[in-house]
Design goal:
The protein is α/β, with parallel strands linked by helices. Among the domains are: 184 residues, Alpha/Beta hydrolase fold, catalytic domain (Rossmann fold, 3-Layer(aba) Sandwich); 101 residues, no CATH class. Helix content is 49%, strand content 8%. The chain has 18 helices and six strands. It has a six-stranded parallel sheet, sandwiched between helices. α8 packs across α10 and α10 runs antiparallel to α11. The longest helix is centred in the middle third of the chain and has 23 residues. The two termini are 26 Å apart. Pfam families: Abhydrolase_1. Keywords: Hydrolase, Signal. Belongs to the peptidase S33 family. GO terms for molecular function: hydrolase activity.
Length: 432
């Protein structure tokens, strides 16, 4: 059984692409089964916003700089939640813990005594909950890009912000070695060129807040006027530029070259590549259609799993911590859970995930990538300490997750485990 992450990504679609995920020896020994978790894809899908509303949600200001902007962000969250509640019944039952229970029903339906599983990113969280609920039913389980369920939602968000800042540092270091690097390479007596590059990128964000970047199609005053009056289809707002930047940092092979292009375009006031990067993340096509309901499902499932119990004033206070620890991405992630205050979660996921106890189950392989922005390496270490009889494979690399990315060290260990059931003798240190 496989799950690619999310929450909100389709396991069914992921299984259809099994040949690009797993090696031939695994495919010849296993049937690859994917399912859409409840609320996702074809499984009683959660619906909240239409395509135009989703566009507006992604483009809206996510970093309130004054009380009026905070009020607007609160209003946006209330309206989003209200549409979810109005369009989808029984939302209380969509938490991840129930999807983990569904996995055991599926195991029974398949006639398997044990559940063999590959979970990536959020899929590791789904697998961990399954192991906590049904430890004796765990077969051969690989958790890649691990989520540590023992830390709070605030701690998770802060560590993610730090992870993206570190990934941006890696991008900048690499960029300086490239002939097409658009970052300023000069330094001063008091400021290093790396620090100046960080300031340049933050400056792009701030400039987009004042004057959103245009698509390359039209840079006329008439087009700008249409955008300001709500008549123009899209421009790269501050939030969309930040989203595009973060999207690029997931994949150093394809994302980093696009980010160099996006930064170069921004110098001329264009945002086409930032928009394309953001669209890749949100799975929006050039006609403005979203491929699935991942945005809505992810929003609701996250809110059910991690209820927001802080006051607005506490969230605002904590935002200063985000900014201190992660000056680039921290301010944009600090208010990410504000809209969750509009859900009165009855999901018991929150009770289960706040686990201080360890999980005793069959051998499990955990993979952590050292410079992973979305699931920081410390999460893999944390999960490793929670699951007895687990092995940690550490991949020294940039980008998100580790299996199937070209590391023979990682892939051979995973394949051997799936084929023989034997864990690596000790924790492994691997590289690309």
């Amino acid at each position: 059984m496989v799950n690619p992450g999310g929450p909100g990504a389709s396991g069914k679609d992921y299984a259809y692409n099994a040949e690009s995920i797993l090696n031939p020896d695994i495919l010849s020994n296993y049937d690859i089964v994917g399912f859409d978790p409840r609320g996702v894809g074809d499984s009683a899908p959660i619906h909240c916003l239409n395509d135009a509303e989703t566009d507006a949600s992604y483009a809206a200001d996510s970093k309130p700089d004054n009380p009026a902007e905070l009020v607007a962000l609160e209003k946006q969250g209330r309206e989003y939640a209200a549409k979810c509640l109005a369009k989808t019944k029984f939302l209380d039952h969509y938490g991840t813990v129930n999807s983990a229970r569904d996995m055991d029903i599926l195991r029974l339906a398949l006639g398997d005594k044990k559940l063999n599983f590959l979970g990536k990113s959020y899929g590791t969280y789904l697998g961990t909950l399954y192991a906590s609920l049904f430890p004796s039913n765990v077969g051969r389980m690989v958790l890649d890009g691990a989520v540590d369920p023992s830390i709070s939602a605030v701690q998770q968000s802060i560590s993610q912000a730090v992870g993206f800042d570190k990934a941006l540092d890696s991008f900048i270091t690499d960029c300086f070695t490239r002939s097409d690097c658009p970052l300023e390479k000069q330094s001063s007596k008091d400021v290093s060129r790396h620090e100046l590059a960080v300031k340049q990128i933050i400056g792009i964000f701030h400039q987009a807040a004042v004057s959103p970047l245009l698509d390359k199609i039209d840079n006329s005053d008439a087009t700008k006027k249409k955008f300001l009056t709500g008549q123009h289809a899209r421009m790269a707002t501050e939030s969309l530029v930040v989203l595009g930047t973060a999207s690029a940092l997931y994949d150093n092979e394809s994302g980093w070259p696009q980010l160099r292009t996006a930064i170069q375009e921004s110098v001329a006031g264009y945002g086409a590549t930032f928009l394309a990067l953001g669209d890749e993340y949100s799975q929006r096509n050039t006609q403005g259609r979203y491929a699935n309901n991942e945005t809505d499902a992810g929003f609701v499932i996250d809110c059910l799993d991690w209820p927001e119990n802080r006051t607005v004033s506490q969230i605002t206070k904590d935002a200063k911590v985000f900014t201190t620890k992660a000056p680039v991405f921290g301010p944009y992630l600090a208010y990410g859970s504000l809209a969750c205050k509009n859900f009165a979660s009855k999901s018991d996921t929150a009770k289960l995930i706040s686990m201080s106890r360890t999980i005793d189950t069959n051998p499990v392989v955990i993979i952590g990538t050292t410079r992973d922005p979305a699931t920081p390496y410390t999460w893999a270490e944390g999960l490793h300490s929670k699951i007895h009889n687990s092995r940690l494979i550490s991949l020294s690399a940039d980008g998100h997750t580790g299996q199937g990315r070209g590391s023979t060290c990682v892939d051979s260990a995973v394949d051997s485990y799936y084929l023989s059931g034997k864990l690596p003798i000790a924790d492994l240190q691997c590289a690309l």
